[in-house]
Design goal:
single chain; about 120 residues; two-stranded antiparallel sheet; 6 helices
Amino acid sequence: MAKSLFEELGGKYERQGDYLIPCLTVPAEEEQSIGTWGQRHLDYLKQYRKVTYISLLTSGRLNAYLADIDKQAQERFERLIEGMKQAQGITEQLKAENALEWVGRMNNIRACAREIVNEEITYA
């Protein structure tokens, strides 16, 4: 019997009853920690970009990809917060003089930065 393309490429079959089932494995990849941004992007891929998700998963690059997205998003988030703090004149002096105003303005900045990162990186 002639070999199938799968067998020619090094694949093997396993007999289960009357059927030959291909032996498929996902390549092992190094485990990296994935933060909030990476988890959000993973959910986005699963829901809206299924082909990309399956491709990354079966090639063994999903974890590295998500860790990279998480790192990029976190760095962008921190840069945005610092830039907005400087633009709005939020200083440690304000924190010492009026803590409630400082907290309110920082919460507003974080919310704005989170929306920007989600739009540019997480859900793109």
